[in-house]
């Protein structure tokens, strides 16, 4: 997978800072709710959320809000690292593989949900170029997690 140039990273980071960073909790929550509604099997990995059966319950759940913030805070950090993500993903891979038992395909699922959400939410700023840069970043994250899972024997 080709790495992004400095100019491409800069443009992706500008998109992130302008559009996403001002409200990480809102965007993270929305992505999680969409993932849980459209990919119900993903709820099984979250004991705190399994009992939620409706979109309204999910939207009003404080734990989903908090976890959405955690997810998007981490993603923002990875965007700012310009592709140097392995060190930051190592502990996440360990916890997600061993403690939470999250299967790798779920990272592909959330990546697609993030892409679709950004496409719908920021049509003026999430043009084809920024979309390509975000997809490349998300693919790099999944690729790195796959490598780290293999190192963990998962």
From TrEMBL:
Q: What is a GO molecular function of this protein?
A: oxygen carrier activity
Domain of life, per the record?
Answer: Eukaryota
The text of the family note is: Belongs to the globin family.
Protein's recorded name: Myoglobin
For this protein, the record's Gene3D superfamilies field holds: 6.10.140.2100, 6.10.140.2110
Q: Which UniProt keywords apply?
A: Cytoplasm, Heme, Iron, Metal-binding, Muscle protein, Oxidoreductase, Oxygen transport, Transport
Its main localization is cytoplasm
> Which cellular components does GO assign to this protein?
extracellular exosome; sarcoplasm
């Amino acid at each position: 997978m080709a790495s992004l140039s400095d100019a491409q990273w800069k443009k992706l980071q500008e998109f992130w800072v302008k559009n996403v960073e001002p409200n990480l909790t809102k965007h993270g929550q929305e992505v999680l709710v969409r993932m849980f509604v459209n990919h119900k099997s993903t709820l099984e990995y979250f004991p705190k959320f399994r009992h939620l059966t409706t979109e309204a319950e999910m939207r009003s759940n404080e734990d989903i809000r908090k976890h959405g913030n955690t997810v998007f805070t981490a993603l923002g950090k990875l965007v700012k690292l310009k592709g140097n993500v392995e060190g930051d993903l190592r502990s996440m891979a360990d916890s997600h593989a061993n403690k939470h038992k999250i299967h790798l395909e779920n990272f592909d699922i959330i990546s697609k949900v993030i892409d679709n959400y950004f496409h719908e939410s920021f049509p003026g700023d999430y043009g084809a170029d920024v979309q390509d840069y975000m997809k490349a970043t998300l693919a790099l994250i999944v690729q790195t997690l796959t490598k780290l899972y293999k190192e963990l024997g998962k």
